[in-house]
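Course assignment 3, question 2. Fill in each field.
Student: A.L.
Task: Predict the tertiary structure for the chain below.
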Amino acid sequence: MEEAAKEVAHAKAETKRLKRFKRLARMEVRELGRKDLRAAIAEYQASGLVEFAEPDYVVQTSAVPNDPLYLNGYLWQHDNTGQSGGVLDADLDAREAWETRTDSTAVVTVIDTGVRYTHEDLEANMWRNPGEIAGNQIDDDGNGYVDDVFGINAITDSGNPMDDHGHGTHVAGSIAAAGNNGKGVVGVAWAAKIMACKFMSQDGEGYILTRSRRSITLVSKAPRFSTIAGAAAAILKLCSMHSTGAGRREQSASLLRATKRITTMRYPAIRLTTHSRLSWP
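Answer field:
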């Protein structure tokens, strides 16, 4: 009688047997027809003939990187479990995000003291200028910088943005240090590319002097590296115009307006101070 009632329930839910377990005689997996999953489950639950009915859930391994300083809890900003007396879950929820995806096609420009592009945790994730041949001492892409493979140095007006301070490298690592490579740290975006643009010296200082007309002209022209990189190069060219006079609020504002045209990411990790003591918003 029970088996007959089950067959009626199966017909009502529009399912067919997919698998039955010999050692678990009361358990079986059934395949849906055209009926909605939730509706079919509701049919079975309402029948009173089953103890439970649920989807055949997909499970997968957890996306926990094997980078040592993540595993030992040092990178609490990614996953704060209260280690070292910290506040539980006061973090970026990076671990939860990594469960969704760890790949990325983003290019992030670090406008700072440069980036140590030979760093073991950054080398693989450095953006590379597709129009430049490294080491040939020629400006292959004709953008005014020789061997600008990883970015530019606006102080020396060259193509070598090597970090001689450390801050820019730290910022780059927080953003995109290679993940799951068994080394050092892990960035938020394991596979994003870093373009290095150096405008601050080994003392950690840099000056910005722009005039609104120049800012608009440079940013509105065709990109000088690539769609993303060229715009960043234009901004860095502005940053390379060192000022010895008093800073003005409109100068900073014009640079912000310029960046709005090319990117939605405007989170500088520096405090901008001038003789008039302006602070970056």
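Instructor remarks: The domain at 105-115+123-173+188-260 is CATH 3.40.50.200 (Rossmann fold). Helices lie at 2-13, 37-47, 68-71, 94-100, 167-176, 212-220, 227-239, 249-260.
Grade: pending
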